[in-house]
Amino acid sequence: MARTTPPRPLDMQLLFPELAAYRKDTVRLHPRPGNPGPRESSLGGPLLWPQSVDWPHCDDDHGQFSPGAGALPLVPVLQLFAADVPELPFPSGTDVLQVLWCPFEHGYIPQPKLYWRDSSTCVGELTEYPRPAGAEEDYLPDPCVLHPEQVVDYPSWDLPDEVAEALKERFDRVGKETGYSYWQHLSVADGVKVGGYPTWTQEPFWPDCSACGQRMAHLLTVNSAEFDGASWRTWLPVEDTPDTGTIWDLPYEDRRLIQSPPGLMFGDMGGIYLFICQQCPDRPYTHWFDCS
Ligand SMILES: [Zn+2]
Ligand SMILES: [Zn+2]
């Protein structure tokens, strides 16, 4: 079953033509619990891994878990094939992005690692993958299948101050008349996503590439939730909307499987944002984290 974000309830271009310059496409991945195979795009699923390449480990000090334990295996987070998410900036000769991370605390969050691969060189189908004992449960994703959907983002925290100032009165008026807040309901798509704007919960931090010095691009966001107590009104997919009542009337576990399907939690409903430099040939990357 596909997942479809409802169209924005208001005509953004008519109401706020100034936003046109800041519009960006983003791909909501819509993870949902499932049983993905190694040749499928997934969150927390098995990866298509090159037989000749050793599984990556984290050598950092993890306090009580490191002494004598040796290096700890990373865990699969995302596998994205070009056929499913062509919007990703695949370096030439590659058609799959694999994101793994070390599921122990690295400054309040796990430590991600990225691999761009040519799937035809990946013959070792790894179906059993490690889940290191003692890792943070909040950082171990439950396997999910994906339902990529392209939608439009408008900036919230990233909207320049002068534009926000110029639009303030109109935002307020529309909010009063319709009940839709630009910031909470109409701007940045919520959830796990590729491209567009990060789902910041605090002041943005855009890293510069350590190799060339240019500002890096937002590659993808791994979020604690697909929507919150406000954003569900516009970002809850049509297919997940109950026939009667709202999503908040569902039993807790039923809602949880729609709101936080992989069972990830970063701080207090935070997000991990991955950035990449598209100018440098070896695609340097880094990450940032914030929460409310
Ligand atoms: Zn580590
Ligand atoms: Zn660079």
Describe the structure.
With about 290 residues, this protein is α+β, with helices and mostly antiparallel strands. The protein folds into two domains: about 10-30 and about 150-290, no CATH class; about 35-145, no CATH class. The chain has helices at about 10-15, 160-180, 180-185, 230-235, 250-260, and strands spanning about 25-30, 30-35, 40-45, 50, 55-60, 70-75, 75-80, 95-100, 110-115, 125, 145, 150-155, 195, 215-225, 270-275, 285-290. The chain has a six-stranded antiparallel sheet, with no helix packed on it. A hairpin with an 8-residue loop joins strand 8 and strand 9. The two termini are about 30 Å apart. The relative contact order is 0.20. The site of one zinc ion has 8 residues, from loops.
Keywords:
single chain, about 290 residues, alpha+beta, six-stranded antiparallel beta sheet, 5 helices, 16 strands, globular, binds zinc ion
Summed up, what is this model?
The chain is an alpha+beta fold and 292 residues long. It has five helices and 16 strands.
**Rg of Cα set:** 20 Å
Structural class: alpha+beta
Summarize the amount of helix as a percent range.
Answer: 10-25%
Low-confidence stretches: none
Strand order of the largest sheet: 12-1-13-14-15-16
Biggest beta sheet summary: 6 strands, antiparallel
Number of domains: 2
Distance between the termini: 32 Å
SS field, number of helical segments = 5
Q: Note the beta-strand portion.
A: 15-25%
Order of helices and strands: HEEEEEEEEEEEEHHEEHHEE
Small ligands present: zinc ion
Mean pLDDT: 94
The number of strands is 16
